[in-house]
Amino acid sequence: MILGCIADDFTGATDLASNLVLAGMRVVQTIGIPAKAVPDADAVVIALKSRTAPVGEAVEASLQAARWLKEHGAQRIYFKVCSTFDSTPQGNIGPVAEALADFLEAPFVPVTPAFPANGRTVFQGHLFVGQQLLSDSSMRHHPLTPMTESNLVTVLQDQLQNRQAGLIAHHDVSRGPAALQQRAAHLVTQGQTMGIVDTVDQASLAVLASTIAAQNWPLMVAGSGLALSLPAALGCEVHAHAQSLPEVHGAAAIVSGSCSAMTNAQVAAFIAAGGEAFPIDALRLGDGHSLVEEALTWAAPRLGHQPVLVYATASPETVRTVQQAMGEMAAGERVEQALSQIAVGLVGLGVRRLVVAGGETSGACVKALGTETLRIGPQIDPGVPWCHAEPAGLKIALKSGNFGSTDFFHKAFDIP
Ligand SMILES: Nc1ncnc2c1ncn2[C@@H]1O[C@H](COP(=O)(O)OP(=O)(O)O)[C@@H](O)[C@H]1O
Ligand SMILES: O=C(O)[C@@H](O)C(=O)COP(=O)(O)O
């Protein structure tokens, strides 16, 4: 195994796995730490649901995953975080990165969430979403991980307990791997053993990938953009691109718990195009109504080739009202629980092609469906592949909140 990967959520894991596959690696993605041996692979991606977990839990789960990966031969560890650096105010990214760095005895850890193909870039340590600073983007309204600071050196430093964070700016990255390495060595002399790396395009990520390979750095903390450049830098033999998945026939459905701006637009576009949709009123989940039964009764006669949508997706104002009534984390968990029960119910009714929108929502649904591994298939949009969920035998796509084009919910099912 060339690369052992730990992803802090499930959509992030398929995003990473998809980019590694596009870059030519043979990848196996597992849900949690595998219970049995995995087939030969250049990379194993372990999907955790740790992004919003309490810090201690996230650290422990990530260390367990790292131990498993090292025991199974991983030469390097890739800690996959969100391209918008999503983390709660308590902040898991820093403590997990620190614990992994200590475990791997990493002299220096490069950190970058950049994914230029989806408009996420880092300049002077600041994260941009398209042309906006992270803190001006819709991510400031995320229900669980509102991001209100764009300076990633600040965000990361606030989360670290024992290490210091510094910056490797574009000036050094643009001059190539030797300059990047020199700047990293300088940071280390200042006691800064973690560095946010400016990455304004895929070329910057290729420079970082070459430096990681040349310096033998054992740990990287990154979004999925780096994965497009890393396999070549590590000298991985290129294998056939998208894997073909087993054919799956059966009804189509979408379950959406993401409240991100793009998912809101995708839900609106699906309904505007005549798609059948059932809204989950999160406030009613609190007062003993069996919305799960209602949703399944609604869906049953409508299931077929055309997808039906069940969604809790709502505007920031609605989410705020729900959170005031239930509490932030409790609201999130209650909606996730209802949607995962609906996903299981839909599969019971014959759904075999399923899109789930939202990282936390995907984690809840994929776990409830008893998924152990995901085979990565063709990409629908950057960062969102179709997968084959095993052992259930489902065709499933886990869509990150802000990924995908507006017509994603129809387009996905047009891809064979
Ligand atoms: N109407 C709602 N009110 C409050 N919380 C909601 C509502 N709909 C969904 N949620 C919660 O918001 C969170 C969205 O996170 P996630 O699924 O990771 O989406 P994204 O990929 O957009 O970040 C989940 O915990 C989900 O249960
Ligand atoms: O890096 C990314 O943006 C995604 O892979 C990801 O992790 C997104 O998380 P969600 O928006 O919570 O799905």
Write the layout of secondary structure elements.
Blueprint: E1 3-7, H1 10-22, E2 27-31, E3 43-47, H2 55-71, E4 76-80, H3 93-104, E5 109-112, E6 120-123, E7 126-129, E8 132-133, H4 152-159, E9 164-168, H5 170-173, H6 177-189, E10 192-197, H7 202-215, E11 219-222, H8 230-233, E12 251-256, H9 261-272, E13 276-279, H10 282-285, H11 291-299, E14 308-311, H12 316-326, H13 328-348, E15 351-357, H14 359-368, E16 373-381, E17 384-390, E18 394-399, H15 408-414
Parallel strand pairs: 1-3, 1-4, 2-3, 4-11, 5-10, 5-11, 9-10, 12-14, 12-15, 13-14, 15-18
Antiparallel strand pairs: 2-16, 6-7, 7-8, 16-17, 17-18
Helix pairs in contact: 2-3, 6-7, 11-13, 12-13, 13-14
Bound molecules: adenosine-5'-diphosphate and the ligand O=C(O)[C@@H](O)C(=O)COP(=O)(O)O.
